[in-house]
Design a protein that fits this description.
single chain, 396 residues, mainly alpha, globular
Length: 396
């Protein structure tokens, strides 16, 4: 079991904890299936809104969005389903990563990614029900406010009632604002709460309220530290991968010549088209520094033979996988950091080290070991009893 300091120093373990094939792979699988469902349903919503697939693909690539495009109500329903599925898969994936990090901190080095996903899928109801319950409370207050607003339309009585109930309405609105903040905290910490406590949705909701009211400054301060480590880890790994790509490019240009140059150019042009919206995001966030770990120029595709074009597609898909692994590492840092943050807050709040808590699997193993230890003793006593009986017969 890893010994923690239970303060900000533990947060710097997050980058090292995330730098694991297991944790990166879990995040990659979750992002892949989450965005696959989201992309499919979003492009279906485009088609139902009479938007052509090719124009939308050229505009959005792998990051489509119905906002700004518009469409009928059923297009928005399809798009909303895609968004909800993406959020659900991300929450379940984050739970699996937090569980893997938690078990690693407990000293379970042979805990597999399949076991982590198994735990997450087994607790899927609690993971999804916790934020849903908070959303339900917010909706309840929102519907109540709308009903009170409709009652305010009643002549004379409505206006007077609204004026007299202003203090109550403002208090309720302030509570709704607090619920929105708690919902944000729940989306961040419910995976860590479920993964470290193995409790149900009620406990996850209770802990979300508890840490929101009891330790808000830790959520903010430690959250900023984790976010900074996540961004720094993403940039460093992306820079290292780009340097590796430049070495790969240089060596193959010597051996393969212009053939590799054309293949690489068309492959990179394909990737740029697939992730086109992210070019502006990265440029806006990092400015000129982005050229050191992202695209430094625009790639214009060339006319190539069929074999070369197929090879460029293979090149683009596999380089896209590399990019996905980089993003997965950044997300793994965030999940590792949030798990550490919750362990720290739980220690300060309840004086409980969750790493010392025995899990169901450990209790089952210990009970089995106790049974196996008791069995030989029973066999020995039976053997002694049989031997004593035989000795008595001989004496008779």
């Amino acid at each position: 079991m890893v010994k923690l300091h239970f303060d900000y120093r533990d947060l710097f373990r997050s980058a090292r904890l995330a730098f694991s094939i297991q944790r990166v792979w879990i995040n990659f699988i979750g992002l892949f299936f989450g965005f696959l469902l989201y992309d499919v349903l979003t492009y279906v919503s485009f088609l139902t809104a009479s938007k052509g697939f090719i124009p939308m693909w050229e505009r959005f690539g792998l990051f489509p969005c119905l906002f700004g495009i518009g469409g009928p109500w059923y297009s928005w329903v399809i798009y909303a389903i895609g968004v909800l599925l993406l959020i659900a898969i991300v929450l379940l994936t984050n739970t699996a990563v937090s569980r893997a990090v938690y078990m690693n901190l407990k000293g379970e080095t042979f805990y597999t990614w399949k076991e982590a996903f198994g735990f997450s899928l087994k607790r899927w109801g609690s993971v999804l029900a916790a934020p849903t319950a908070i959303i339900g409370i917010i909706v309840f207050f929102g519907v109540g406010a709308i009903i009170m607003g409709l009652l305010g339309r009643i002549p004379y009585v409505g206006e007077l009632g609204t004026g007299l109930m202003t203090l109550f309405y403002m208090s309720s609105s302030l509570f709704v604002f607090f619920l929105i903040l708690v919902l944000f905290v729940a989306f961040l910490f419910v995976p860590s709460i479920i993964a470290t406590t193995d409790e149900d949705a009620f406990e996850a909701v209770f802990q979300s309220f508890s840490i929101s009211t009891g330790q808000p400054w830790r959520i903010i301060a430690y959250g900023v530290v984790v976010a900074a480590i996540e961004i720094l880890g993403f940039v460093i790994l992306a820079w290292a991968v780009k340097e590796a790509f430049l070495i790969f490019n240089f060596l193959f240009l010597i051996g393969m010549g212009d053939k590799f140059s054309d293949l690489m150019n068309n492959g990179m042009a394909l990737i740029q088209g697939w992730v086109y919206p992210t070019l502006n995001w990265i440029q806006y966030a990092f400015g000129d520094m982005s050229r050191y770990f992202y695209f430094a120029r625009d790639f214009v595709p060339k006319e190539l033979s069929a074999v070369m074009q197929i090879s460029a597609w293979f090149f683009a898909v596999l380089m896209g996988v590399v990019g996905g692994l980089i993003v997965s590492y950044a997300e793994a840092i965030g999940n590792s950091g949030l798990t550490l943050v919750y362990l720290i807050m739980r220690k300060h709040q309840d004086d409980e080290n969750l790493l010392e808590r025995k899990e169901e699997e450990e209790e089952e193993e210990s009970s089995e070991e106790e049974k196996t230890e008791e069995t030989p003793k029973d066999e020995k006593t039976e053997e002694k009893g049989e031997s004593s009986d035989s000795e008595e017969k001989k004496s008779e």
